[in-house]
Amino acid sequence: MFGERGLDGLEDATDLYAEDVEFHEGVHLPEPGVYRGIRQIRDYFRGFVETFEDYSLQIEGIHASGSKVVVVIHHSGRVRGSSAEVEMRNAWVFKIAFGKISRIEAFGDPNDAFAAAGISA
Description:
Blueprint: H1 9-12, E1 17-25, E2 33-36, H2 37-49, E3 52-65, E4 68-79, E5 85-97, E6 100-107, H3 110-117
Parallel strand pairs: 1-6
Antiparallel strand pairs: 1-2, 3-4, 4-5, 5-6
């Protein structure tokens, strides 16, 4: 999602996203809400990542069926200004329409993402 240039890579990859792309952060995740368009999504992720001194995102798996793709993710990092280490495993459902990413929905539990996408885990 971010590419080699990190968060700025979102702007480089605008041809992958629908103009009206939305990112839905679930209520069980750190900053629930709906972010619309590449700039709002990038700003959301920039704010999230900047709360960490050391942040890592690793993709554990990619599962596709039809117009939906579930990406299981492991996040880890150290909260800025503290020694608190944070780890989280969640999943994002990408919806593809007309060859572009039109919606991304984040789920705190990967099983919920699989269920929402209609994909077997």
